[in-house]
Amino acid sequence: MPKIENTAVLGLVKAEKSNSQKPQLLSHEILKQWGYICPIALPTRSVHPRVIGRSIEPDAIDYELIKSWVRFCTNCHVKTCRILDDSCTPPCRLIDCSTRKVVEAPKNCQYVAMSYVWGIKEKDARNYLVCTETGLLPKHLPTVIEDAMTVVRSLDLQYLWVDRYCIIQNDDTDVLKHMGIMDLIYNHAHMTIIAAAGSDPSFGLPGVGSRSRIPQPCANVKGHVLVSTLPDPQDMVKRSKWMERAWVYQEALFSIRRLIFTEHQVYFECNNMHCHESIQTPLEAFHTNDRRRYRTCIRHGMFRGGFGKRCWPLTSHIQKYSEKALTYQSDILRGMLGIFRAFEKFSYPIHHILGVPIEFDMDLTYWKQQGAIYKQYRAYPWKLSASFARGLCWSLQSPAPRRDGFPSWSWTGWAGSLREWLTFEKLSAQENPGIEFRVALEDGSFATLHELYGFTGSKVAVSKTSQHLDVEAWTIQILIVSSSYPEISQGSTESEKLTQQEGMREFYAKAELNDGTSVYSPLILSKQPGGGNDFVTRLHDSTWDCIVLSYRKQASRSPVVMVIEDQEDGAERIGLVDFWTCWSDINESRSSIVLDDRKLLKTRRKIRLS
After folding, report:
1. Angle between helices 382-391 and 370-379 (to 10 degrees)
2. What's the pTM value of the predicted model, to 2 decimals?
3. Helix 314-322 / helix 337-344 crossing angle, nearest 10 deg
4. Alpha-carbon distance 600 to 515, whole Å?
5. Distance CA 194, CA 266 (A)
6. pLDDT of 494 strictly over 50
7. What pLDDT, in 10s, does the model give residues 495-515?
8. What SS3 string covers 222-265?
9. Neighbouring C-beta atoms of residue 21, cutoff 10 Å
10. How far apart are CA 184 and CA 346, in angstroms?
11. Residue 543: CB partners within 8 Å, gap ≥ 6?
12. Is the pLDDT of residue 344 over 90?
């Protein structure tokens, strides 16, 4: 159905007697794009609260409405919409919107943070450098920042934090310092303005400055004013350019209150409620009796309570983050530093090595027994290495190119999206895989994981880690086979045929058992099988070493292994094999089997991963 400008459509969906959800799904999709039709007033006074529409102007923002949303949040959500760690204040500079100067943040001041699409960085540094003598901003600011300053003043606030001007862009030390405390900057902000409209800073905030919003369809029917509630702002934000950016993931996650500008309306979401400018929401009725949060019957907000309300596993955050886009691939780790820092400050801290998390035993972390965790890792030293090995059990949705400057054993070393991570829920924390690690440091020395994080009681001075990882572990050898080629399109050139074959082929690991029989399991490649088909040829012609990382909980010692390829400066990871899915053959009549790694031919080896 083509979308008609300035037209609201009332759709009727025929009810079906069956239990089919097609009508509901169809109507839901239509309403996400078009919105509901609501009166802006009721003909008679109602005892019960009702949800009705609100008429909004294309060129004006109702700032009193926004103030009422913020006021309700600050008064009622005292325990849930609050700063996670008020013991430390982020050392940051702020824009004083009344003087247009960048100043040192006054103690305990309220400020608004800004999240937007930076766009292509300008070559002329003078356009984003502040005057060092006076602190004055450049004369010509990007429209989105100029509009944000207008919003701050209209909300009776004074200070605004914007990375472009509050971080000294030509000072690498200042940039790195701020990258590591993004969680503090956004979490301490009174509110975050999110520019979800447009694809660069020149678009501005619709309805604030010179750019109008898309007009709201309305009609007068016998004296009753009907308005459209406009397209679902959550859907608009999810499809925005802003949502694609990797940097905004932690910015939105740590923000307590988010004021989001779309091309149609303003959308507000704190950790416990969400409001549309086009809908008059009865906040008291939507909340629980104690007014601390929305009732469970109300749909969730986009950010599900942010970081403070529900703490998702670190691996879940990494997986979602990996789906985002980066202008500079070298920023892959920097864009997660705030999240890593927050997890390291937990009462049961989760550390990482170049992005690979060391998740502790869930039975211990569930009870938040930090003392018990340390006691376990001192009593059973292998458990710390086993925890890190489980962090290495990541896999990509599809083979991807290598990312320069990062190791192959870390997900940061590959420019691709991650699959669902194999975590403690699926991998055994009780089986000892017999793996040990020594981490290479930038000064050329090596440290064990216990030395790195001080579990031995004598924490060593640790420099930054480098890309090399020394591993001593059990290894197996596999052959790699592939399914037969599917039918190739007629008339394709030789290069096109090769591309089609590579894209359609499925690869399997073939492992030999002690009794001479073989088993097959899917190979999840990290490395792309392109490059003139040389890698594909090597896949079939070579025998491959695999490091045993962990075992599945659901099966008797069913191993998860990392497939590696020897290189000049160390072995490179090329994929992962999870023998939980295992067959005795790969024909159409394949039959599943349960593999115990004690049936495999294993060798103890020392390997340097790069």
Report:
1. 110
2. 0.86
3. 180
4. 9
5. 10
6. no
7. 444 444 444 468 899 998 888
8. CCEEEEECCCCHHHHHHCCHHHHECCHHHHHHHCCEEEEECCCC
9. 10
10. 14
11. 477, 478, 479
12. no
Please name the residues in contact with 455: beta carbons below 8 A apart, sequence gap of 6 or more. 374, 377, 378, 384, 449
Which tens digits make up the pLDDT trace of 566-576? 988 889 999 99
Give me the pLDDT at residue 503, please.
46
Which pLDDT score, from 0 to 100, does residue 2 have? 38
The torsion angles phi and psi of 574, rounded to 5 degrees, stand at -120, -10
* Domain shared by 364 and 461, yes or no: yes
Range of the domain at 200: 63-309
List the one residue out of 417, 251, 248, 404 whose CA is nearest residue 329. Answer: 404
The upper half-sphere exposure of residue 450, i.e. CA atoms within 13 Å in the direction of its Cβ, equals 19
Residues 305 and 273 sit within 8 Å (Cβ to Cβ): no
Dihedral over alpha carbons 248, 86, 99, 266 (to 10 degrees): 40
Position 433, amino acid: P
CA separation for the pair 404, 141 (Å, rounded):
34
pLDDT digits (tens, 9 = 90+) for 67-101: 999 999 999 998 888 888 877 778 789 999 999 99
218 and 266 share a domain? yes
User: Pick from 287, 309, 331: which residue ends a domain?
Assistant: 309
Q: Kindly report, residue by residue over 368-377, the tens digit of the pLDDT.
A: 455 555 666 6
What total of structural domains would you count in the chain?
2
Instruction: Tell me the residue ranges of DSSP E strands in 274-404.
Output: 274-276, 279-280, 351-353, 356-358
- The one-letter code for the residue type at 202 is S
* pLDDT attached to residue 462: 53
Q: Is residue 50 part of a domain?
A: no
